[in-house]
Amino acid sequence: MLRMKRSQCVDNKQHNTSMISLLQYLFSILVILVHSGRLFSQDVIHFTFKSFLGRMAVPYFLICTAFFLRGRIQQGLCNHSYFRKLIKKYSMWTIIYLPYGYFFFESLNIAKIYLLPGFIVALLYLGMLHTLWYIPAVILGWIIIQGLLKYVGTRGTFITVVVLYCIGAVETYSVFVQSTKFYPLMSTYMSIFQTTRNGLFYTPVYLLAGYLLYDYFNTDLFTKSRGLKYILFLLLLALENVLIYFNQGLDKNFFLLAPLCAVFLFNWSIRTSLFKDYRLSPLKQLSVYYFFLHPLFVGIVSYCLKSTSLVAHHQGKVIFVVTLALTHACALLIIKVVNKIPYQKIIPLSLSK
Predict the structure, then answer these.
(1) Span 167-214, pLDDT tens digits
(2) What are phi and psi of 339, to 5 degrees?
(3) Which of 135-139, 205-209, 309-313, 349-353 bottoms out in mean pLDDT, i.e. has the lowest?
(4) Is the separation of the CB atoms in 226 and 263 below 8 Å?
(5) Of all residues in the chain, what percent are helix, strand and coil, respectively (each to 5)?
(6) Dist. CA 105–CA 148, nearest whole Å
(7) How far apart are CA 37 and CA 32, in angstroms?
(8) What is the C-alpha separation between 331 and 294, in angstroms, rounded?
(9) 316, 36 in Cβ contact below 8 A?
């Protein structure tokens, strides 16, 4: 792919942003499902929704972000304003969830002297809540690929981010490396940083995938048989999930075929004619608030159900349904009142003219 001729022009008018908005919305619901605990008593179904389908949400978001950021660069626009807004948004959500982060550190019963270093690590790496890691990871990942592209070129950047991703994937494939000399080093890293899902190991490969998709958008790789290619990589990813299901490691954030599957899903979604004539941008608005608001309600509902006798998977269903309803209501309130933006109805574009 790296030897192919770059796209001369990407026609933004042909982008199906409606399908992108729809998928972003559906993936944001899957994120809520993942964080609601166990919803199914059967292990296979639980794994399928949480580790197979649910883990595709963040890769899709990352590729989407990188694709449009690359488009801004090609159009001569500066991305500084985008990242300034991102940092402001991150600061706002950090302040909102700061009490949660404090009580979490308090629950660890660590010495007060470590609260400040813990706060710094949370701010720059983990986030004050488990979803807030995404923004610093995007910023760091983008800085990494921009630096690599500048100094080692496209080929060197591609090789570097793939190697970093494979190192991070040891988290998922830890069962297979337990007998190697690398495992003690990995265990030490995990005991300090908890996960390799960060801006160093995880996000660069997806950001580069979106970046390169824009550059090679009109090449045969992405224009021909795009639906079949996505189905092929989806099936291969499913086989990889079967392998991991029977050999589960420390966590399941990394799948080796996920970048290919995600980039061809995005490629299909931006080109398909499905829902192209509908205004689905309100779903994108909702998906952003779903992503950042839902942990608050997951925590509240989980606390309320703590003393009940519901079994785990029934409790998970209640958490999911109630959290989704409360998150949706709160998101609508913010859109209508705080942002003073009228919520747009989803209608055919032909009727809005």
Answers:
(1) 999 989 988 988 888 888 888 888 777 788 999 999 999 999 999 999
(2) -80, -15
(3) 349-353
(4) no
(5) 75, 0, 25
(6) 36
(7) 9
(8) 10
(9) yes
